[in-house]
Amino acid sequence: MIERSHLKIIKALADNGTLTAAANALFLTQSALSHQIRYLEKKLEVSLWEKDGRQIRLTQAGELLLQVARQVLPVLEQTEKTVKAYGEGRQGILRLGVECHPCYQWLKGILADFLINMPDMDVDIVSKFQFSGLEGLLNHHIDLLVTPDVVKKQGVHYEPLFDYELVLLVANTHKLAGKTFINADALDDELLLTFPVPHERLDVFTQFLLPASVTPKTKAMESLDLMVQMVGLDRGLTVLPNWLAEELSQSLPVSTVRLGKKGLHKTLSAAMREQDVAINYMQAFVNLGKSS
Questions:
Q1: pLDDT at 17
Q2: Same domain for 174 and 259
Q3: Are 148 and 197 in contact (CB under 8 A)?
């Protein structure tokens, strides 16, 4: 029988690349780790890894176990946390997935209210997924996904939270500041600061720039604060939801400009598994999101 410890070993081997590093990550000696791997290989009657120079490489069988490990281990971990919460007298843990980088600013504003209203609940926030947030939802890695993208999928319910508009944020000294709106070609020679997301997943590219065959220079940045600071110094432009951009323009030397004459409009939604929609703490989160 394949046990949880076996899956953790395979994942550690893949994540760390060497026996020594994997053993350190698992708080084992290298000899103890080697012994456990040999035991598992003997039981399964198949080789799971092989040496590739100083590194190790998983075999086909090892890769299969790794896929299982990446799917099963997070579920087991979250299940343990939830069961522990039950044992401590709490209702459980709401595991939130977030696919919208600026949404963390919005999320901070409602989490305090949620925890005050639901004192028997805890919250875990997941921002990185092995595949996608939707798959994380379907695989029970998360309970609710905050997303601006509605992808129809059997068994998934999308609850609209609020509408917003994506706008361009520029320094007050920039040549585009003060314009009512811009066309895509106005960004042709600009540096566009983006979050570290593939362009095909950014609405400003898929719905504004690429249809006009415009490909500005880009620079990916993890930190929203640093990104906004760069914009204020006129070292680039960025695109943010209007509710966040307008808030920033009240305290920083930046201005907002509409993207296109009609604007680039979006809706933030909460995606849930259909069987979970009626759960009281899910409804509590959704209601707070709608009233924010």
A1: 87
A2: yes
A3: no
